[in-house]
Amino acid sequence: MHNFKMIGKMYREIAGLDKGILPVDFFCAILTGAKPFVNIWFTAKIIGMMTVGADFKGLLAYILAAVALNFVLDYAGGFFSPLYDVKSGLLFSRENFKMAEKLFRMDYEKLEDNTFRKTIHKHEEAGASRWARFSYFMWTSQVFVKGVFTVAVSVVMILPLLKIGFTKTGNSFFERPVFLILLIVTLIVMAAVMALIAVRMNKAGSSVLFAH
User: Fold this and answer.
1) What residue spans of 18-133 are helical by DSSP H?
2) Rounded to whole angstroms, how far apart are CA atoms 212 and 115?
3) List of residues 6+ apart from 211 with CB closer than 8 A
4) Residues 91, 156 share a domain
5) Are 205 and 173 in the same domain?
6) pTM for this entry
7) Statement to judge: residues 130 and 112 lie in one domain
8) What is the distance between the alpha carbons of residues 138 and 11, in angstroms, rounded to a whole number?
9) Element (H, E) at 153
10) pLDDT per residue over 34-87, tens digit each?
11) Are residues 149 and 71 part of one domain?
């Protein structure tokens, strides 16, 4: 719960520095996550239509729709990606300015205070570490949103296959439901290991991240 409160506080601080970066970050994550699934779905649909001998007009309509949707996604990505880079750099500069402003307004008498010196040292560490920047936090947020979106769409797309996979079609290992169960467990273990690595990497820089 404490970590969630800190994350919420960070988002509020980021919104105070630049309100536009949060929606831009979200749209970038959705756009980059959606494109592979769009191509997979249209490719599967077109191959299925060709297999059953669909008429040329219907096939052409799906091909044109796939090209048009890819164009829209590429155009939107070409707009939002540079915009995110600009806003990320602007957030970095505003964060530096706010940190410097807070330090500048400190009372001169505190210069000899040990607590103040430790605070200065933490700010110096934060300034030198990419882990301790709001811009890096926004990038990790974008990766997280993209991951959640990818998992959600993958689950929706794989549900029909799961119904088939849990049906025994033969006596071999690969034709029994146990194969699919083992495959799912393997994927879950891989995801858990990746999540554990990500958590440890973030914890390594969390103490510096909240120093300022």
Assistant:
1) 21-51, 56-104, 114-128
2) 14
3) 119, 122, 123, 125, 126, 132
4) yes
5) yes
6) 0.67
7) yes
8) 9
9) helix 134-165
10) 888 888 888 888 888 887 777 788 888 888 998 999 899 888 988 988 899 899
11) yes
Please report, to the nearest 10 degrees, the dihedral formed by the alpha carbons of residues 142, 144, 150, 152 taken in order: -120
Q: Which of 35, 60, 30 is nearest to 45 (CA)?
A: 60
Shared domain check, 71 and 48:
yes
Of 160, 180, 197, which marks where a domain is finished? 160
Range of the domain at 202: 168-211
Q: Kindly give the interhelix angle for 114-128 and 177-209, rounded to the nearest 10 degrees.
A: 130
pLDDT tens by residue, 139-182: 888 888 888 888 888 777 777 766 666 677 777 776 777 777 88
Number of domains in the chain: 2
Residue identified by tokens 């807070």 is 102
